[in-house]
Amino acid sequence: MKKIIIPACLLALGIILFNACTKDGLSSSEASAVNAASVKDQSTDECKNNIDKLVKNIHWIEQACFRIDAGKYTVYIDPNSVPDNIKADVILITHPHGDHWSQAELDKIVKPTTILIAPAEIVYNGQIGKRIILKPGEEYNFSGNIKIKAVPAYNIDKTWAHPKENNWVGYLIKINGVTIYHAGDTELIPEMKTFSADIAMLPLGQTYTFNSVDDAAQAAKDVHAKLAIPMHFGLYEGTAEDAVTFKSLLKGSIPVIIKEKGK
After folding, report:
1. Which string of DSSP letters, residue by residue, matches 130-174?
2. ∠ at Cα 155 (222, 238), nearest 5°?
3. pLDDT digits (tens, 9 = 90+) for 215-245
4. Buried b / exposed e across 6-20, counting CB within 10 Å, b at 16+?
5. Regarding beta strands 130-133 and 139-141, do their DSSP bridges make them parallel or antiparallel, or are they unpaired?
6. DSSP-derived secondary structure for the chain
7. Among candidates 174, 170, 128, 178, which has minimal Cα distance to 152?
8. d(CA 227, CA 257)
9. What is the pTM of this model?
């Protein structure tokens, strides 16, 4: 009987696709090569199911604030108007503007074991378990199922709002093999073409962030998102109509879920 030998490179590729939808930090060219492989069809349904399952556990609170229920862990991003009845295991803050963080907001959700991940300017005086400073490109593994990587977030035109030299960030949050991109406050920047995400959370404010809703839609395409969630609208800037426009611009290419605020 002839032995069937599977080349090591194909075996390794199959393992990669079985274990994750999108590898955190994967470049666009690498992601394209992986997606083109013949084993893609075997993992597509599983990947979609994992994304659909996770997106149901993503709650938009307000502005850029989300709570993600990741199994036994609770992750908050840019706490704003948070209730005080669900405590955080991990808190991610993108930058120090008042609609993205405050001492009072953190006081509502921290506990003695909470891990706070944020740029260096964020100084919190409450009792927490650990304080982590991340710059663009740096990573932190919270657990075997949750990995966090900081990516650049800045303005190209409106440099007074979010200067690149401040090293403020967005985040790639990988949970059970699904990568979520929270863009923070940013314009359409070239770095978005250097990584991929399954779910993209993108701001529609336009005064301080993307110059247009079209730019936000392009960002979803640049990161090869499989699903997009608009944010950062309906409070100080941006409207519900902008979210509808965003969904329309991506119709037929990337599904968009407009989350109900506070749900």
Report:
1. EEEE--TT-EEE-SSSEEEEEEE---SS-TTTS-GGG--EEEEEE
2. 80
3. 999 999 999 999 999 999 977 888 999 999 9
4. eeeeeeebbeebeeb
5. unpaired
6. -PPP---HHHHHHHHHHHH-SS-TT--HHHHHHHHTSTTHHHHHHHHHHHHHHHHTTEEEEETTEEEEEETTEEEEES--S--SSS--SEEE-----TTT--HHHHHHH--TT-EEEE-TT----S--SEEEE--TT-EEE-SSSEEEEEEE---SS-TTTS-GGG--EEEEEEETTEEEEE--S----GGGGG---SEEEEE---SSS-SSHHHHHHHHHHTT-SEEEEES-SSSS--HHHHHHHHHHTTTTS-B--PPTT-
7. 170
8. 8
9. 0.85
- Give me 171's structure tokens: 């985040």
| Tokens linked to 138 | 């740096």
State pLDDT tens for residues 140-186: 999 889 999 999 999 999 999 999 999 999 999 999 999 999 999 99
Tell me the pLDDT tens digit for each residue of 125-135.
Answer: 999 999 999 99
- The answer to whether the CB of 191 falls within 8 A of the CB of 172 is no
CATH architecture observed for domain 21-249:
4-Layer Sandwich (3.60)
> What pLDDT is stored for residue 39 in this prediction?
52
| Two tokens, residue 29 | 């060219």
**Model pLDDT for residues 92-138, shown as the tens digit of each residue:** 999 999 889 999 999 999 999 999 999 999 999 999 999 999 999 99
Residues facing residue 73 across a β-bridge: 70
